[in-house]
Structure to design on (149 residues):
């Protein structure tokens, strides 16, 4: 049962990310925004998020196996905030609200890493690239808000 849950966690994170990304795909509004020089080309986001969502699912499975309720709560919190950001940014086109969501996501990820460091070092390490990418996304979100408000 425990190993059978791994594909379910990956399906939840990767499938959820793909579904939300598909439903909230950047359109003409996003294309028309002024963007900073460090804005990656659109094709970069899919591969990066695919790798990150697989890692997020794997970490969720590890945390579930550990039975650590605090880590589990942080894992679910980051996933919820992660899934919330795209509809707020792309669908609602609320850049400042999206910035507050991604800042909360940053906090949840960094807190997860800090709490997991003792309980499950591998999970903490696997969240470091996720934290780096999300912090970059925060900078990008903030810059887009600043340039377009």
């Amino acid at each position: 049962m425990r190993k059978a849950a791994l594909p379910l966690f990956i399906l939840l994170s990767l499938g959820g990310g793909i579904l939300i990304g598909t439903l909230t795909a950047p359109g003409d509004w996003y294309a028309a925004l002024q963007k900073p020089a460090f804005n990656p080309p659109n094709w970069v986001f899919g591969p990066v998020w695919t790798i990150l969502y697989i890692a997020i699912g794997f970490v969720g499975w590890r945390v579930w196996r550990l039975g650590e309720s605090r880590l589990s709560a942080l894992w679910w919190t980051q996933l919820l905030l992660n899934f919330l950001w795209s509809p707020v940014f792309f669908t609602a086109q609320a850049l400042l609200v999206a910035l507050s969501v991604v800042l909360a996501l940053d906090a949840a990820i960094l807190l997860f890493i800090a709490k997991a460091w003792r309980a499950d070092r591998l999970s903490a390490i696997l969240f470091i690239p996720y934290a780096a990418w999300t912090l970059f996304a925060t900078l990008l979100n903030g810059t887009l808000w600043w340039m377009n408000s």
In short: The domain at 5-148 is CATH 1.20.1260.100 (Ferritin). The chain has a mean pLDDT of 96. DSSP finds six helices and no strands in the chain. The radius of gyration is 16 Å.
